Amino acid sequence: MLTDTQVESWLVEDVGHHDATDDVPGEARGLLVAREAGVAAGLDAARAVFDYLGVDAEPQVEEGDRVGAGDAVLAVEGPARDVLRGERAAVNVAAHASGIATRTREAVDAARAASAAVRIACTRKTTPGLRGVEKRAVAAGGGDTHRLDLSHAAMVKDNHVAALGLERAVERVRDRVSFATTVIAEVERPADGPRAAAAGADAVLFDNLPPAAVERGVERLPAGVLAEASGGIALADVPAYAATGVDVISMGSLTHSAPALDYSFRVECTAERDG
């Protein structure tokens, strides 16, 4: 969950040392409104911005709901100057998260058209300081968050293999972790999948391989070993990879390249406060 320190840093970044335009008296109501169709996310984060400022904020839809142009997703009410102070940070985080959720839903739909069982997952290619927001947005879009940090699974990557060799790298990690920790081995050739599995990998990630090569790799894996495809997979590529038989397709583009969903924030000022 977001901390007050994180929210404060967003506001400090945006407001700076002074805002000459915030001397607005009275109360205000505001609506965060979608200007295009998409999937809503980041509303809890936007609400946290207004909560920090003492402004009442209520989501109008659930995280993960589809929204259309003109739909209100968040309603706020409070002192006008604080509503305006929180506007940009709240809109930014909701737009960013909703864009991620929308792109994720598109990828999930594309994958499910080819395979009902395959999962779409994100990666650790997230914006510093925003990983929690971005991972929750992926979940809102129907995707899998994958590992949240390095402690959530042990992944043997290409640089580990370059330093130690595939089998030794996997065996060393397997020996160091709990039986409950998933060990994932990244390979760049179909034939290396069975080697990684024999060394103790629970899952094999086929990295930067075309769909045909991934399919050959999946066919060689022993039963019970999960197969993952990753590496520069774009939305248009998803159906082809989903048809290879992999269990998971992981896409860094879900978090680092998804365009923000277009939102507007409409404010209506009401009567001035006493005094």
TrEMBL record:
Which InterPro entries does the entry mention? Aldolase_TIM, NadC, NadC/ModD, Nicotinate_pribotase-like_C, Quinolinate_PRibosylTase_N_sf, Quinolinate_PRibosylTrfase_C, Quinolinate_PRibosylTrfase_N
**What reaction does this enzyme carry out catalytically?**
nicotinate beta-D-ribonucleotide + CO2 + diphosphate = quinolinate + 5-phospho-alpha-D-ribose 1-diphosphate + 2 H(+)
Q: Name one GO biological process term.
A: purine-containing compound metabolic process
Q: Which SUPFAM superfamilies match?
A: Nicotinate/Quinolinate PRTase C-terminal domain-like, Nicotinate/Quinolinate PRTase N-terminal domain-like
* Keyword annotations from UniProtKB, A to Z: Glycosyltransferase, Pyridine nucleotide biosynthesis, Transferase
User: To which protein family does this belong?
Assistant: Belongs to the NadC/ModD family.
Q: Would you tell me the protein name for this molecule?
A: Nicotinate-nucleotide pyrophosphorylase [carboxylating]
What organism is this sequence from? Halomarina halobia
